[in-house]
Write a structure and sequence with these properties.
single chain, 312 residues, alpha/beta, Aminopeptidase, OB fold (Dihydrolipoamide Acetyltransferase, E2P), 13-stranded mixed beta sheet, 6 helices, 17 strands
């Protein structure tokens, strides 16, 4: 059942509408658990669209296996999705920096507060994101160290390749995931792929993981895969490779490939005079989980991330 979460009038007779699709078992007992799946908070991150489609399709076709309530929010920032804009067009605001919002605040703050209120009470929330147009990411879950103990057992079911546990940062306190965790809704962020694109294999991979999570929560009785065992970044070395010169980055390695310390990872080229500006090498041995997708780089541009072995 498609429901309107919030509607705000805009100019020239238009309106800002956010919808969700609620899928329920055929017979309700009143004790069902509820899972919320959200995406589209950044308008240029489209990887979650395929996941929403697949969830809706499978739940519709195999509804007899559904034992809980699933709320699917395919576009929390529909204006951004429609205009291929990361933030909210016309407001110059990153929507994932205004949570938990304010019911009596400005338009965007009011909408953020209504989203929070609607998801409130869920037993779990999965917040789907993509990378930007510059970088490609393997399917991963990101969470702060403060939440790791509570979320890690569930994140391990999500069929991702990596769980990245990071230090808490003040800027993250205004995100949807932080706001939901703060009010008692366990939430983690899934990051995958590249901006403005859909990676079919990643979408299916995460969809399978969500059904594994639903089975653990007692919401799904259908068949599920055995989720892949993710790498966990905790106590591992992390190699960050930034460009020291401006130019065109030509990688030598594959995304999700394994490299050795000192191995050439690519070159930064100067098309004007045919010279190599920089030879890029890996600072550590490990897995390439982030790789530059957009070839034009400036000094300081992130080229890759390599997840190494245990720290000494």
């Amino acid at each position: 059942m498609i429901e309107k979460v919030v509607s705000i009038g805009l100019s020239v007779g238009e309106s800002w509408n956010i919808y969700k699709n609620r899928i329920e078992p055929k017979v309700l007992s009143g004790n069902e658990k509820r899972l919320s799946v959200v995406t589209g908070v950044h308008g240029d991150e489209l990887e979650g669209q395929l996941v929403c489609y697949e969830l809706n399709r499978i739940l519709r076709e195999k509804k007899e296996h559904l034992k809980g309530i699933v709320d699917i929010y395919p576009a929390l920032n529909p204006l951004g999705v429609d205009s291929i804009t990361r933030g909210v067009p016309g407001f110059d605001i990153d929507m994932n920096r205004i949570f938990p919002g304010d019911e009596e605040g400005a338009v965007t703050e009011h909408i953020a507060s209504r989203i929070m209120a609607d998801i409130s009470g869920s037993d779990f929330c999965v917040d789907l994101h993509a990378s930007n147009i510059f970088l490609r990411e393997i399917p991963q879950i990101r969470m702060s160290g403060k939440r790791a103990d509570a979320l890690l057992p569930y994140a391990s079911l999500m069929n991702v390749d990596l769980i990245w546990i990071h230090e808490s940062a003040p800027v993250l306190e205004s995100t949807l995931s932080h706001g939901l965790n703060s009010i008692g809704v366990p939430t983690f962020v899934v990051e995958m792929g590249v901006g403005m694109r859909i990676t079919k294999s990643y979408g299916h991979q995460i969809t399978e993981g969500i059904f594994c999570l639903m089975k653990e929560l007692g919401m799904w009785t259908g068949e599920t895969i055995i989720p892949r065992e993710p790498m966990v970044s905790l106590n591992r070395m992390l190699g960050l490779i930034h460009a020291e010169k401006a130019g065109i980055f030509l990688p030598f390695v594959e995304h999700l490939g394994v490299v050795e310390k000192g191995q050439p990872m690519g070159q930064i080229l100067n098309p004007m005079d045919g010279t190599v500006m920089e030879e890029v090498v890996s600072p550590t041995s490990g897995l390439v989980f982030t790789l530059r997708e957009y070839p034009v780089v400036s000094t300081g541009s992130l080229l890759a991330r390599v997840l190494g072995g245990e720290e000494e």
